[in-house]
Automatic annotation (TrEMBL):
Protein name: DinB-like domain-containing protein
SUPFAM superfamilies on file: DinB/YfiT-like putative metalloenzymes
Organism this protein belongs to: Candidatus Kapaibacterium thiocyanatum
Record-linked Pfam families: DinB_2
Every DinB-like domain range: 9-147
Length: 160
C-alpha cells in the first residue's frame, strides 16, 4: 500500500504541474476576487501545497525537518494578504519539488503495518491512522490543483 499511495501522491502532483505549466507567464502573486471574496494567488497555493506536504508527509511521517524558513507563512491559518514577504516563485517551485521528492521517498519507505498506526497528533479533532493523513494529503493536493485550474480560466487560459 505504501508504494501505491506514493504513486497516487506523485500522480496527483502531475495535475498541479499541468496547471502550473499554463500559468507560468502570469503574475503569480495576483489575487482575483470572485463575488467579493478574495481568491488565493497561484504562488500562495503552491507554497501552501509545499507547507502541507512537508507537514503531513515529510515532517509527520518521516520526521524530516523543513529547510525553508518561509514555509509556515503559508500554513492553513494564513490568508496570504501581504505578498511583500513572499519568496520568489522559483524558490517556491524548488521547495515544492524537494519536499515532494522527500515525501514520496518517505512514503515508499514506510512499512505497510506502520500506515495503520495512529498518528502522534489528532487530525480533524480525532485520532486517525497514518494512512488517513496520506489520504488527506492526496485529496488536498488535488483540491488545490483544481483551484489552479480555475485560475487558468480566470486568466483566459485554455487547458482542457
Amino acid at each position: 500500500m505504501s508504494a501505491t499511495l506514493a504513486d497516487l501522491l506523485d500522480y496527483t502532483r502531475n495535475m498541479t504541474k499541468f496547471y502550473l505549466g499554463h500559468l507560468q507567464d502570469i503574475d503569480m502573486k495576483r489575487h482575483y476576487d470572485a463575488n467579493g471574496i478574495q481568491l488565493n494567488a497561484p504562488l500562495w497555493i503552491c507554497a501552501h501545497l509545499a507547507w502541507a506536504e512537508q507537514s503531513m508527509i515529510a515532517g509527520a511521517l518521516g520526521n524530516v525537518p523543513s529547510p525553508y524558513e518561509w514555509l509556515d507563512t503559508f500554513s492553513i491559518e494564513s490568508r496570504g494578504e501581504s505578498t511583500d514577504a513572499w519568496p520568489e516563485f522559483e524558490d517556491v517551485k524548488t521547495a515544492m519539488d524537494v519536499i515532494h521528492r522527500t515525501s514520496v521517498d518517505v512514503l515508499r519507505g514506510l512499512p505497510e503495518e506502520e500506515l495503520m498506526t495512529v498518528m502522534p497528533f489528532p487530525l480533524f479533532g480525532r485520532d486517525v491512522p497514518k494512512r488517513t493523513v496520506v489520504f488527506h494529503a492526496i485529496r488536498h493536493e488535488g483540491a488545490h490543483a483544481g483551484h489552479l485550474g480555475w485560475l487558468c480560466k480566470l486568466h483566459g487560459i485554455h487547458t482542457i
